[in-house]
Amino acid sequence: MKFVTSLALLATAAVVSASPVQKIFNLVTSGASDDSNNGLYLSTEHEDPLNSKAVFREKTDAADFYFTNGTVRYDAPNGAPYAIALIPGENQQGDVEISVSPTTGSRGFRLTSEKQLKTSNKDFGGWLVCDGDDDLQGLFYENSSAGNDVPEGCDAVQLDVIYKTSS
Ligand SMILES: *[C@@H]1O[C@H](CO)[C@@H](O)[C@H](O)[C@H]1NC(C)=O
Ligand SMILES: *[C@@H]1O[C@H](CO)[C@@H](O)[C@H](O)[C@H]1NC(C)=O
Fold first, then answer.
1. Quick check: CB of 107 below 6 Å from ligand 1?
2. CATH number, domain containing residue 109
3. Contact between residue 117 and residue 161 where contact means Cβ atoms under 8 Å apart
4. Which residue in 33, 102, 133, 164 has its CB near the most CB atoms, within 10 A?
5. Tally of domains in the chain
C-alpha cells in the first residue's frame, strides 16, 4: 500500500517538472559591507504607466521573477508583463528599471553556479544598493566603463536567486 502511494507521488512530480511552468524566484541582496543592506527583496515602485523603479521592499512585497530567453520578467498583480532593464547612461551608477514591455527588458541575464544574477553586458561591473529619493532603497548597477569606485550612498551587493517553493 505504501509502495503504491509513493509511486503515484513520483508520477505527479514528474508531470510537474516536465510542464513549461516557469520557475519563480525572488531576488535578494547579499555580500553588502553594511549588513542592513543584506537580505533586501527586489520589488517595484510605480513611476509612470510604462515603467517602474527597481526598489527593495519587505519579503511579503517582493516581486516574483522568472527567466525567459535571457530576460528577467515579472507579472504584475493586474497581469501586465514587466522585464528588468539596465538603463544605459554615462554614469558610473546606472539606473535599473522594470519596464512594462518584456521586449524592452535587457537581454543577457544569466545565473552563476552560485545562483547569483549576472548579465553579460560588457559595461556591467556589479549590482549596487543606493539611497533613493524617498525612504526606499533602489537597485542600480555599476558601469565599469565609467569608473570602478562604488559611488557615495551605494553599497556593492550580489543578487541571489531564491526559488519559491510551490507549497
Ligand atoms: C530569444 O532571443 C534571441 C536572440 O536575441 C531571439 O532571436 C529570439 O527570437 C528569442 N526568442 C524568444 C522566444 O523570445
Ligand atoms: C557606460 O558608460 C559609457 C560611457 O562612460 C557609455 O557609453 C555606456 O553606454 C554605458 N553603459 C551602460 C550599460 O550604461
1. yes
2. 2.80.10
3. yes
4. 102
5. 1
67 lines ligand 1 (CB under 6 A): no
Residue 89 Cα to ligand 2 middle (Å): 5
DSSP state of 69: T
Query: Would you put residue 31 in left (φ > 0), alpha (ψ -120 to 50) or beta?
Result: left
In a domain, 58, yes or no: yes
Find the ligand nearest to 107 CA: 1
Distance 75 CA to ligand 2 centre (A): 28
- Is there an atom of ligand 2 within 6 Å of 44 CB? no
Q: What are phi and psi of 22, to 5 degrees?
A: -70, 150
Q: What is the reported pTM?
A: 0.82
